[in-house]
Every structure is written in structure tokens, then in C-alpha cells.
Amino acid sequence: MYFLLANLSVIDLSLSSVTAPKMITDFFSQRKAISFKGCLVQIFLLHFFGGSEMVILIVMSFDRYVAIGRPLHYTTIMCGNACVGIMAVAWGIGFLHSVSQLAFAVHLPFCGPNEVDSFHCDLPRVIKLACTDTYKLDIMVIANSGVLTVCSFVLLIVSYIIILMTIQRRPSDRSSKALSTLTAHITVVLLFFGPCVFIYAWPFPIKSLDKFLAVFYSVITPLLNPIIYTLRNKDMKTAIRWLRKWDVHSSVKS
User: Fold this and answer.
1) What's the pLDDT tens digit per position in 197-219?
2) Is residue 186 within 8 Å of 160, Cβ to Cβ?
3) Contact yes or no for 195/212 (Cβ under 8 A)
4) Model confidence, pTM
5) pLDDT of amino acid 149
6) Long-range pairs of 34-37 with CB within 8 A, sequence gap ≥ 24
7) Contact (CB, 8 A) for 245 and 29
8) Exposed/middle/buried for 173, CB within 10 Å: 0-12, 13-18, 19+?
9) Could you tell me if 121 and 129 are in contact, meaning their C-beta atoms sit under 8 angstroms apart?
10) Which residues, at least 6 apart from 23, have a Cβ–Cβ distance to it below 8 Å?
């Protein structure tokens, strides 16, 4: 689990670093511009890290199922070589997904407007600037990113339902600990997939909502994930309680 969490943290750090620096720079700049190559790099990295994170979240749900449903076989199934192989597959799927997305935009004819109605470059907004009919491209984006996102989300929901049903058949002391861990996983899944479903699969986009979700998905969610998992750590909980008591004592003395 900690090996998977470490990889998730690396992806979250990378995902937030794709758009946040440029976004912060634009806030203090009058000319908010990005080169065409820079725009394509943003698209590639967003889908690379986003696709990899989807796979990792699915693997983490499988990891929790094995730990809860088959604890005696856990070290055999989720051995070191299996974890390394799974992560290689996750990064590979993210790369293939990103390349397939970028292939739609590289050869498009851009000759008209050059203003993206968002805080960063993303494929659904960039292809709207092309000087050609983009209806088929919109369908391709939905078929690629939208279907992948929805299918992954449904698969995760079904897997967590199965895990919760398994927990109900366990003793109360073990089920409470497992449920505590699952709460963090489910929260992260909802925070990550919620915006993705609206951005890539929702057929009736709302510009103002899409802009908010774009920032939430690319910046806020990657920053929240480490906090969510950190708060499940016993040592961190103890430290927070100690700080709260120290703060109360300090205010009483003052």
C-alpha cells in the first residue's frame, strides 16, 4: 500500500506542477500567452499523469480487496515484483493514452482564433480553435478520455461496493480499521473522477463550471490527496492532538 501511495504522491506532485507554475505566472502578467509547443506539452503531461493516476487508483482498490478479503495471500499476490510490474503498466498506459490524445491535435490546421477559454491548455478546448469541423474530433475525445474515465470510475465504485460487502462479514474490530482506510481511498477517487467525468464525458458543458473543475482537477485535488492520506496516519493524528493541546495551554498562559 505504501509503495502505491508513494507513486500516487509522485504523480500528484507532477500533475499539479504541469499547470500551476504557468497559471500563477499568468495571474501577475498582463500578457497571458503560451507557445503552441508549450500548449501541446501541457496536453501531453496532463493526460500522461492523469491516465497513470486512474490506473493506480484501480490498483489501489485491488490492493485493499486482497488485504481485506485474502489477508493470508496478500504478501504472495502483492509481492515486490508484482508491484513494480503493475506500476510499469500504469505509467505505460498513461503514456499510450497521452500519445493517442495528442495525435488528434498535432496536425490540426490552426489559422483563426488563438485564445483558449481556460486557465491551461486541454484537448477539448484546443481543438475548438482549429479551422475545420471538429465534430468528429469531439466524438473521438469523448470516446477516448470520456469512456476511459467513466469505465474506470464505474469499475472502482463496483470494486469498493464488493469490498464493503466483504467488510460486513468481518469482526467489528477488523472492519472498523479497514473501513477507516477505505474512507480515504473513496474520498480520493471521488475528488479525482468527479471533475474528470464532467470535463470529458458530460455532453452539456458549462464554461464557468468547466473552468473551476479544470483548476480543481489539475491543482487542488493533487494537493488534497497527500493531506487526506496523511490524516489517516496514527503518528500524524497524535501530533495534531499534541499541537491542539499545546495551543490551548499557550493561550491559557497568555
Assistant:
1) 777 766 566 666 767 777 777 77
2) yes
3) no
4) 0.78
5) 81
6) 34/121, 36/110
7) no
8) exposed
9) no
10) 119, 120, 215, 219
Please list the alpha-helical segments (H only) found in the chain: 2-27, 36-69, 74-77, 80-106, 123-126, 135-141, 147-168, 172-200, 207-215, 221-230, 234-253
Looking at the predicted structure, is the pLDDT value of residue 234 above 70? no
Question: Using alpha carbons only, how large is the chain's radius of gyration in Å?
Answer: 21
Gap between the Cα atoms of 4 and 85, Å rounded:
12
Query: Between these two residues, 252 and 244, which has the higher pLDDT value?
Result: 244
Cell numbers for 126, please give them. 484546443
Q: What is the pLDDT of residues 110-140, one digit of tens each?
A: 777 778 777 778 777 888 888 877 777 777 7
| Angle formed by the axes of helices 36-69 and 147-168, nearest 10° | 20
Q: Which amino acid is at 165?
A: M
Q: Is the dihedral of CA 97, 98, 100, 104 positive or negative?
A: positive
Q: Half-sphere exposure (CA, 13 Å, Cβ side) for 204?
A: 0
pLDDT of residue 217: 73
Cell output for 174: 477488523
Give dist(CA 126, CA 129) in Å, integer: 6
State the Cα–Cα distance between residues 173 and 16, nearest whole angstrom. 37
What is the grid cell recorded at 182?
A: 477505505
186 vs 226: CA distance, rounded Å: 14
Type of residue at 1:
M
Residue 117 cell numbers, joined:
477559454
pLDDT in tens, 89-107: 989 988 988 888 787 777 7
**Distance from C-alpha of 185 to C-alpha of 60, rounded to nearest angstrom:** 8
Task: Please state, in angstroms and rounded to a whole number, the distance separating the CA atoms of residues 110 and 128.
Answer: 10
